[in-house]
Amino acid sequence: EAQVTQNPRYLITVTGKKLTVTCSQNMNHEYMSWYRQDPGLGLRQIYYSMNVEVTDKGDVPEGYKVSRKEKRNFPLILESPSPNQTSLYFCASRQARGVNYGYTFGSGTRLTVV
Amino acid sequence: KQEVTQIPAALSVPEGENLVLNCSFTDSAIYNLQWFRQDPGKGLTSLLLIQSSQREQTSGRLNASLDKSSGRSTLYIAASQPGDSATYLCAVRQGSGAGSYQLTFGKGTKLSVIP
């Protein structure tokens, strides 16, 4: 089944403790992206990657890092999480070539930073 | 910068009714528009993707239309069912520039279908 897989689904952590949320897709998509969803603010893009070793900032990149060492994986790294990073996070992917491909989203990771 | 607005923010209808959800966007230079469904605390499920050159797309009881020049899209749900209860999100992908590398989302319409 074509899908985007995120892990973990739920995570509670303490301020300052480094964490990584993994994202993997099995569709050979070039483009991958991370979004966060907050009440009243909707979904906002954190980072995106056009291909292996190519990443760029979205609208809200502060406090996050990403890497794209393999085409299928795009982990989101919080080096020193803070309570304002408590949110619902989504990973998404799509074909890069051909402008009219839609996005596939993962099931989300609910992160709580205390 | 592109802005996407969805009206109404919430909608409650009795089972069996036909309904329309609205989405408007400020910049008509889009590649495509995608409608998603989100169940509480869950991921986004793609419902329909409309190319910028298309006027509508259909999938089962769902029909989405696009009027790019006026910056509007509608999602029509026929014969609504309790299982349709969810939040429906509209998202546009820009035609060029930084916006072409992301989706700009509306804040969604929360639909409740009452049995």
The averaged pLDDT of chain B comes out at 93
Q: Could you say which overall geometry of chain B the principal axes of the C-alpha atoms support?
A: globular
**Which sheet architecture does the biggest sheet of chain B show?**
6 strands, mixed
> How many whole angstroms does the radius of gyration of chain B measure?
14 Å
Chain pair forming the biggest interface: A-B, 24 and 22 residues
What gap, in angstroms, lies between the N and C termini of chain B?
41 Å
* Order of SSEs of chain B: EEEEEEEEEEE
Low-pLDDT stretches of chain A are: none
* Helix and strand sequence of chain A: EEEEEEEEEEE
- Mean pLDDT of chain A comes to 93
Percentage of residues in DSSP E strands of chain A: over 45%
Would you write up a description of this structure?
Chain A is mainly beta. Helix content of chain A is 0%, strand content 50%. Chain A is built from no helices and eleven strands. In chain A, strand 4 (31-38) and strand 5 (42-51) form a beta hairpin. Chain A is globular and about 40 Å long. Chain B is mostly beta strands. In chain B, 0% of the residues lie in helices and 58% in strands. Chain B has no helices and eleven strands. In chain B, the strands form two sheets. In chain B, strands 2, 4, 5, 9, 10 and 11 form a six-stranded mixed β-sheet that branches. Chain B starts with a strand and ends with a strand. The model of chain B has no long low-confidence stretch (mean pLDDT 93). Classes of the chains: A mainly beta (114), B mainly beta (115). Chain A binds chain B through residues 31, 33, 40, 42-43, 45, 48, 50, 56, 58-59, 88, 90, 92, 99-100, 102-108, 110, and chain B through 31-32, 34, 36, 41-46, 49, 51-52, 89, 91, 101-103, 105-108.
